[in-house]
Design goal:
CATH class of the largest domain: Mainly Beta
Largest sheet: 4 strands, antiparallel
Radius of gyration: 24 Å
Organism: Simplicispira metamorpha
Number of domains: 2
Structural class: alpha+beta
CATH architecture of the largest domain: Sandwich
Order of helices and strands: HEEEEEEEEE
Number of helices: 1
Family: Belongs to the small heat shock protein (HSP20) family.
Distance between the termini: 96 Å
Protein name: HSP20 family protein
Shape: flat
Pfam families: HSP20 (PF00011)
CATH topology of the largest domain: Immunoglobulin-like
InterPro entries: A-crystallin/Hsp20_dom, HSP20-like_chaperone, Small_HSP
Number of strands: 9
Helix content: 10-25%
């Protein structure tokens, strides 16, 4: 009997290790993308609408930094982008489209309301020449890297 349970036990341990690794990977990759959404009622009171994912890629190139954010279901007019020092802030509001008809939601996984996502930039950027485009639910921000004087060698001269 012990020889029959050993392969099963080994398979279960392997499955558990694989599942645990998958959760760790998901938590690592999505942890930074978790964003709190808030909404205001008619009286202006703000409450938590919940958490949502704002998946983001940040790529550093020689001449620029490119940020790509997935923000489906939004209009470009609902987005605001600010650069303050080494911080890029993207904020906006995702509106719930009210569908007509009878019925009630049984599953709600989409986040709605206002949000703000802040990223620390790895290099100084030229905010004046930054450009942003929003197309098909993807916000792309291109920030030229700021010119900084490169180090230079200072010659030592003889006194005299």
């Amino acid at each position: 009997m012990g020889t029959l349970t050993a392969p099963w036990r080994q398979g279960a341990q392997h499955a558990w290790a694989s599942l645990a690794e998958g959760w760790r990977d998901l938590r690592r990759r999505a942890g930074g993308a978790l964003t709190r959404f808030r909404h205001s009622d008619a009286a202006g009171r703000e409450d938590d609408a919940g958490w949502g994912l704002v998946a983001t890629d940040l790529r550093v190139e020689d001449e620029r930094i490119v940020v790509r954010m997935e923000l489906p279901g939004m209009n470009r007019e609902d987005l605001q982008i600010d650069i303050n020092g080494d911080r890029l802030s993207v904020s906006g509001e995702k509106h719930l489209e009210q569908e007509s008809g009878d019925g009630s939601y049984r599953l709600v996984q989409c986040a709605y309301g206002s949000f703000q996502r802040d990223l620390i930039l790895p290099h100084a950027v030229d905010a004046q020449r930054t450009q942003a485009r929003y197309r098909n639910g993807v916000l792309r921000i291109e920030m030229p890297r700021a010119d900084r004087e490169r180090g230079r060698r200072i010659p030592v001269r003889a006194a005299g």
